[in-house]
TrEMBL record:
Keywords: Cytoplasm, Ribosome biogenesis. This is Ribosome-binding factor A. The keyword Protease does not apply. InterPro entries: KH_dom-like_a/b, RbfA, RbfA_dom_sf, Ribosome-bd_factorA_CS. One of its GO terms (biological process) is maturation of SSU-rRNA. GO terms for molecular function: ribosomal small subunit binding. Belongs to the RbfA family. Residues 1-30 are annotated as: Disordered. PANTHER family: RIBOSOME-BINDING FACTOR A, CHLOROPLASTIC-RELATED (PTHR33515:SF1). It comes from Acetobacter ghanensis. GO terms for cellular component: cytosol.
Length: 154
């Protein structure tokens, strides 16, 4: 069996997902299946009471699912709205991943159900940080002067 990527790391992991992306991005099928996986996972998190004590009474939002080009691995981006402690739940999510994968197999009509890899979604935190930076008086002054190239304050 030949390895598609010549690195010494495990083939098919999340790093291979990024390496396998073409410059044009994921295919339409990857996007469609990724969205279907996201929808089913979001439904499972909303309707399931997990036996794992770390996940009981925890509200998890699945924001995005990115599939590897071979559809064998999926990176699942999760967040807890209003809280920034989702990273502490990653070990518990890894423990329930096989059960979630079984549930996906029952609900999806795809040949191979991908192995799930959970990552915290930090996009909202990053956007809020950028917004707070843009509101700084120094930045507002620079942005205000950028358009007209004259200083009305002098």
């Amino acid at each position: 069996m030949s390895r598609r990527h010549g690195s010494g790391s495990k083939t098919g992991g999340p790093a291979d997902y990024l390496a396998g992306l073409s410059s044009s991005g994921p295919s339409q099928r990857q996007l469609r299946v990724g969205e279907e996986v996201r929808r089913v996972l979001a439904e499972l998190f909303a309707r399931t009471t997990f036996r794992d004590p770390e996940l009981s009474d925890v509200s998890i939002t699945v924001t995005e699912v990115r599939l590897a080009p071979d559809f064998k691995h999926a990176t699942v981006f999760v967040t807890r709205l209003g809280r920034s402690d989702v990273a502490s739940l990653l070990p518990a999510l890894k423990r329930v991943a096989p059960w979630l994968r079984t549930q996906l197999a029952h609900k999806l009509t795809i040949r191979t159900v991908p192995e799930l890899h959970f990552q915290p979604d930090t996009a909202l935190d990053t956007a809020m940080h950028v917004d707070s930076l843009l509101r700084l008086p120094e930045v507002q002054r620079d942005l205000g002067n950028e358009g007209d190239h004259q200083s009305d304050e002098d």
